[in-house]
Design goal:
The protein has 271 residues and is an alpha+beta fold. The strands form 4 sheets. Strands 1, 2, 3, 4, 5, 6 and 17 form a 7-stranded mixed sheet that branches. Helix 1 links the parallel strand 1 and strand 2. It is globular and about 50 Å long. The protein starts with a strand and ends in a 7-residue tail after the last helix.
Amino acid sequence: MNKLRIGLGQLNSKDNIKNSFKEIENQTAECSSRGAQLVIFPEKSTYLSETSTYKYAQTMDGEIISRFKELAIMHNVYLHNGSFIEKSETNGKSYNTSVLINPSGEIETIYRKIHLFDIELNKDLTYRESDRYKRGNSIVNHSSPLGDFGFSICYDLRFPELYWKLTIRGAKLIFVPAAFTMFTGKDHWELLLRARAIENQVYIIAPNQFGEHPDNKLCYGNSMVIDPWGKVIARASDKVGTIVADIDWDYLEDVRKKLPSLKNSVSLQEM
């Protein structure tokens, strides 16, 4: 059967990297024991706080990615870190960076978040990621023995043109690791995820942070897997934990064959 088993970890990361890794290690082991070939975590899986971000930023050869490499080797899985705070060449600013590591402990893909979360919903809900982070400038696709992947992070979800470009470049599964807030998540999270899956006829893999975090941040949870028809095929409970789902590549091709919207697409630039 042409399938991929994938595991998602739903975390409640805070401002303690050591404690975060204890849960990441436990969840990797649990997903692996259930047959997952690839395990993915939420955005900022090892450190989630709005303060001291630059202080805790690391390079690709730092402890955080080194430990993810060790976990991938130990459990013989592909491991997607969700994202971590990566040092940049600009003093005081970092990148919000996803890394995909293979079972040999080698980095296969790096993606730096393109769309930074700058919003002012009210006086108590204001975020300015651009004050602390630099945006990435590359759209990232990756083909591996497991499948054809596209990369995004959290706020990227609100920009459908990114997902369209990932799809026309070959993506059949797109990652959306997130720290989606409770305020927006309760109304928009599932709706946007399902829309991106339906529009592009891809699997959407979306592990989200859950619960209370430093700086009065509250995340929505509801990590989920959406199939190319837009159906939620796996959803996390309202707690820290894991979910496992099977990705069926034959089903994806069947959806694209029966409803060939990708082939029927017309370039509006010519009109």
